[in-house]
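haha ok so turns out i had the wrong file open the whole time. this is the CORRECT one, sorry everyone. sequence first:
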Amino acid sequence: MSVMTGMRVFAGRLAGMVVLGPDGDSVGRVRDMAVSIYEDKATALGVVVELATKRKIFLPMLRIAAITENELTTVSSTVNLRPFKPRSGEVSLMDDLIGAKVHTDDPEHPELHGKAVEIVDVEMERNRTRDWRIRRVAVAQRSRLGRRTRVTIIPLDRIQGLHASGTGTVNPDAELIASFNEMRNADVANTLHDLPEDRRVKIAQELDDERLADVLAEMPDDYQADILSQLNIERAADVLEEMDPDDAADVLAELGEDKSDVLLELMNPEDSEPVRRLMTFSPDTVGALMTPEPIILMPQATVAEALAHARNPELPTSLSSMIFVARPPQATPTGKYLGCVHLQKLLREPPSTQIGGILDLELPALYAEDNQETAARYFATYNLVCGPVLDQDNHLLGAVAVDDLLDHLLPEDWRQQDWRVDTTDQMRKEA
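then structure:
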């Protein structure tokens, strides 16, 4: 079996691989992989990397740029150096899966029915959402002399005997956490909200930093603050670094000045600086709602480049709908703001066209001091889901998205209410 076939990887062959940063510097070697299993689905969460110091850290699969026959490359030279600790809902590839005894009902292999087989390796495949799903399992029998027989590849959904806690007793917390891999962040947040406080915090602590950051953003501010305040202070800072700056600013405001100052100090300066800027604006203004990280390009960029940025799967759909163009510097606050291009306009232009020549110069901008009602009228007037936010000197400070605006305009408890309106009951009341 080769290590890779297209976007497919035999996970067991990664063990011992060199891990390189984007600049080619050695990070360490792969020693294990964390996997989540729920019902008949399994997801590779990340790899355990041993550094030169022998410390083991966790590298999420989303931080992996490429896997070749001999090495694994990360997307960033920055890695989280917090020591790896296994969490509920995760199983170890090397300790729990490879070598585990299971059985199969695969109709393609009736000769294996009713017999114990041993997992030799698992094949994972990267899907469109960039998750690595385990699709097939390599199994073999053991002869009386302890030797493995011929290896057979079986679809995962035809393997029986695997659970979120490995091949042993099912752990309710592990099963719940594993089920989160099939759920949207908002639905995970609602599930956590309905749990007793002690279990809610316990489950939240078991999520990795990126997932916890995404889930917290879908919870009420007081619930976010409660969970963050019960994390180790360094881990709380790591989670805040993974949050969008506007969401991080909201929860820090909820935590109070003393604790927020400590957390901001512990955060990476590149992550804390935009959060600090947002916290200077009044909570009821557009400046407090905006994100300082929209798509910003120079006028010389082409339509093809702009579309490539818009296709970034980590970018919210509202922010991917608009490309903003400014003079250097490109980071917010930018140089002079020149205009914007809507995604629909990009789709109608040749790929080689420079976006500086197709700017929408008629669309007005919002200003950081504008209030939320002004922003609501802006979106309703121009049928947009994202708009530019400027300062008084026409520097682009960021963009405000309609979903962030709605989050603040709706009642504080809107997340705890069913989003469906019962029109039958409403009609009865009106009658």
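Confidence is low (pLDDT under 50) at residues 1-6.
again sry for the mixup
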